[in-house]
TrEMBL record:
Record flagged with keyword Transmembrane helix: yes
CDD domains: Ubiquinol_oxidase_III (cd02863)
Domain spans labelled Heme-copper oxidase subunit III family profile: 1-208
Keywords linked to the UniProt accession: Cell membrane, Electron transport, Membrane, Oxidoreductase, Transmembrane, Transmembrane helix, Transport
Protein's UniProt name: Cytochrome bo(3) ubiquinol oxidase subunit 3
PANTHER family in alphabetical order: CYTOCHROME BO(3) UBIQUINOL OXIDASE SUBUNIT 3 (PTHR11403:SF2), CYTOCHROME C OXIDASE SUBUNIT III (PTHR11403)
Transmembrane segments: 34-54, 74-93, 100-120, 140-167, 188-209
Quaternary organization: Heterooctamer of two A chains, two B chains, two C chains and two D chains.
């Protein structure tokens, strides 16, 4: 930005240059945008939960949740995801201590637990399909696969994000940008845990009730 001034003593016209040194990007802009994204994700899952609430008892003469769900297996899978949330918390603690290696180590454990969760979920889906209980069998199974599958896709995207972030940490360390990315992924990962608790309670636990 420039401004032209006139100096009476010399009769010269001087051009003064002004440069804005501050960053135009607000410090909280990224976090605000990510909160807005999480709110939009909440709306998506709210719609899926509402759909399951309406169609969850529409079996069309097919199998019910009590006949299909393996509750001990789902409980083990739930423990994987909840443990991954704890290990991510350890990674954030190491981030505050500026320990790059320890942060990456805990992120790796978190990713392995996420992969284990996805593996058991895919095993469950494969078992249901082999039993002839695919999403086309009834409205109950359609809403079930839509809700649980959407959550699984989010976990998959979270693992991909985690891998990319580990690469960034190895390359650049705990710079400000990487710390911000770690915090955003932390919110995303804990959000998935909260959603899964709802799925476990509303879909699986209530599904085995008569």
């Amino acid at each position: 930005m420039s401004e032209t001034t006139y100096t009476p003593e010399s009769g010269d016209v001087e051009a003064l240059e002004f440069h804005v040194t501050e960053d135009h990007h607000p410090e909280t802009g990224t976090l605000l945008g990510f909160w807005l994204y999480l709110m939009s994700d909440c709306l998506i899952f709210a719609c899926l939960f509402a759909t399951y609430g309406v169609l969850g008892r529409s079996y069309a003469g097919g199998p019910t949740g009590a006949e299909l769900f393996d509750l001990p297996l789902v409980a083990i899978n739930t423990s994987f995801l909840l443990l991954s949330s704890i290990t991510y918390g350890f990674a954030m603690l190491e981030t505050q201590r500026k320990r790059v290696g320890a942060t990456i180590g805990w992120l790796a454990v978190t990713g392995l637990l996420g992969v284990a969760f996805l593996g058991l979920e895919l095993y469950e889906f494969a078992h249901l399909l082999n039993e002839g209980a695919g999403p086309q069998r009834s409205a109950f199974l359609t809403s079930f696969f839509a809700l649980v599958g959407t959550h699984g896709l989010h976990v998959l995207f979270g693992i991909i994000w985690l891998v990319v972030l580990v690469v960034q940490l190895r390359k650049h360390g705990l710079i400000v940008e990487n710390q911000r990315r770690l915090f955003c992924l932390s919110m995303f990962w804990h959000f998935l845990d909260v959603v899964w608790i709802g799925v476990f309670t509303f879909v699986y636990l209530m599904g085995v009730l008569p």
